[in-house]
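Good morning C.,

I know you're traveling, so I'll keep this short. The sequence:
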Amino acid sequence: MKIATYNVNGINARLPVLLRWLETTAPDVVCLQELKAPTEKIPEQAIADIGYQGIWQGQKSWNGVAILTRNLEIQEVSRTLPGDEEDTQSRYLEAVVNNIHIGCLYLPNGNPAPGPKFDYKLRWFERFNTHAAALLALNKPVVLTGDFNVIPTEQDVYRPERWLEDALFRPESRSAFKILVDQGWTDALRKLYPNEPIYTFWDYFRNAYERNAGLRIDHFLLSPHLDSSLLAAGVDSDVRGWEKTSDHAPVWIELAD
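The tokens, ready to paste straight into the viewer:
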């Protein structure tokens, strides 16, 4: 079973890229972030035409998440992250596919930091960690994936000294991610590639992709039930080089049945 995550950075603007990638790689489950479109503007038919169904949580101009499946039933669990009924930002979607709970998230960026946006990021992160602990307590297979907007370690960023004051790399963000992982989650890419530079995002500026000056901010966390099922993982970094593409690349894992 192949599961992928992709911050598309505008699903309508990047639709040709998304469809080309889906047809080329054919993952069984796809989590999308930063749709930047209200639900009624999601190009569902174009995606259905290549064999995918899904559940969507759009938002006009900003945010938005989706979970797509190919030849697999999808059972929606939740469209919001628990803990704040006043939070209307579309950043979390949860479903069960093939007996696996899948949480698709778009964690707040938090810049500029310090400031209100960073405070919101940390509050959201705390809520997410609480929910993640509750998912572990279900004692079932769970995958948490998406754009976490966190650079976990210096190994995960080109020239880390340039990111010290950025919300993605500030100590508070890294600490929150470590608290999450230490609950008992497996960082899938680091399990298979513990010592290699792995990037999932390259800025549009300063030829970052061409210089491989990237960040690893799109992650897969696996519950203990799935740790031994992990067969492979990777980043489709070539997609970042396509015309009119997102500044993120798709990330994927393969699990044994």
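Safe travels,
E.
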